[in-house]
Amino acid sequence: MTDDRTPSASSLTAPDGFPPSPGGHDPEVLRQRALDALLTARARTTALTDSVDEGELTAQHSPLMSPLVWDLAHIGNQEEQWLLRAVGGRQALRPEIDGLYDAFEHPRAARPSLPLLAPAEARTYASDVRGRALDILETAPLHEGGRPLERAGFAFGMIAQHEQQHDETMLITHQLRSGPVALTAPAPPEPTDAASLPGEVLVPGGSFTMGTSAEPWALDNERPAHRREVAAFHLDTAPVTCGAYRRFMADGGYTDPRWWAPEGWDMVREHGLEAPLFWHRDGGQWLRRRFGVTEPVPDDEPVLHVSWYEADAYARWAGRRLPTEAEWEKAARHDPATGRSLRYPWGDTDPTPEQANLGQRHLRPARAGAYPAGRAPSGAGQLIGDVWEWTSSDFLPYPGFVAFPYREYSEVFFGPGHKVLRGGSFAVDQVACRGTFRNWDLPVRRQIFSGFRTARNA
């Protein structure tokens, strides 16, 4: 999951080999971009924490998650350590709380027992830090020859991404909590041509540029850009829908070990799984709970809250497979007309509401086939936003990887224990979602906003 990965700034590394952002980035444009990203993130944090009372903020709604008030103060503490101390050289405001909000020191299940800041104190602290951070942003040198943390505003972009990642985590907590409805949002737009879309697209074989050395706020695991060879393959045009997944269930998908990796089959039997998380049967109908509302499962919406094991089992049942991470990125970014890899499926411009379901604008995925303006040159759609998409790939470094600004963001997670997810979800802000962005999680995770699409060899 894209949170709980930021230790104290005392672990800062600034290797000379960290790829610089390209020339031509106007420092003042980046300064305004950083300001906008920080303000957008804080407005969302405020909405997520002001929508419930103090008891809800301090409660632990699931042992899988922190109390909301922990996330709130952690956001402020990381901003203090990285922007006030590491970038601004300021004296520490609250050094005594660094340990309380170190995500590596205290597991989530243990955090309610810590002497955490109360809600009012946490809000005041985060606000005080933010005011000082914005003062530093006004004068920080963002030019290409500056210190690695300041160059192109990297530290400010990193902190905006960190806050938005915790906002997504807090939204997961909202989904897990019981009680009255606290959040509402309009429905996403309906697809206009879903009935005429092919079920899959052919992505031709060949090499393409994977990753980036040019995106100024790309995190270390997205770097550097490198060439990757991919054989031709077919990919689902849209994520797998609830209706398609229900056919897997109806065909005994959760009772047949043929489709499951051994560890996944153990998980099914241990927990008695028979459907995605938050689904339950009422008579002959499947219902789901979504942010406090119980509703029929919509057949044409991408399936949500499935683990990697469930996605892999469905793909096997369907006679297909999960795409590799490289296949996913080629389908999402490669433009065969120019040979370039695009920032996003639709091009190099930042997302608009017509192109992708991002930023908690809607509290659900859009129906399969939505956002025609966001489709990639490959013809695949909804590759950005809606649901995180499990891939078959383990989370591993790219050739030439350099940890920056600390090993604990990516390096300590590399290996077969974590699977890569791509594309973001409706809960992700655009600052923390791009064609090169890599998320990763344990294959058992179900509370995250995860779905998938399938592939097959050409």
Query: Over the alpha carbons, how many angstroms does the gyration radius reach?
Result: 21 Å
CATH superfamily of the largest domain: paralog of FGE (formylglycine-generating enzyme)
Number of helices: 9
Low-confidence stretches: 14-24
**Structural classification:** alpha+beta
How much beta, percentage-wise?
5-15%
Characterize the largest beta sheet: strand count, sense, and whether it forms a barrel.
Answer: 4 strands, mixed
The global form is globular
Account of the 3D structure:
This protein is of the alpha+beta class and 458 residues long. It is 29% helix and 13% strand. It has a four-stranded mixed β-sheet. A three-stranded antiparallel β-sheet has the order 1-4-14, with helices on one face. α1 runs parallel beside α5, α3 runs parallel beside α4 and α3 packs antiparallel against α5. It is globular and about 60 Å long. About 2% of the residues have low confidence.
Which terms summarize this structure?
globular, paralog of FGE (formylglycine-generating enzyme), 458 residues, 2 domains, four-stranded mixed beta sheet, Four Helix Bundle (Hemerythrin (Met), subunit A), three-stranded antiparallel beta sheet, alpha+beta
Write the layout of secondary structure elements.
Blueprint: H1 27-50, H2 54-58, H3 68-87, H4 119-139, H5 154-176, E1 200-203, E2 206-210, E3 226-230, E4 233-236, H6 242-250, H7 262-271, E5 279-282, E6 285-290, E7 293-296, H8 308-317, H9 325-333, E8 334-335, E9 340-341, E10 388-395, E11 415-422, E12 439-441, E13 450-451, E14 455-457
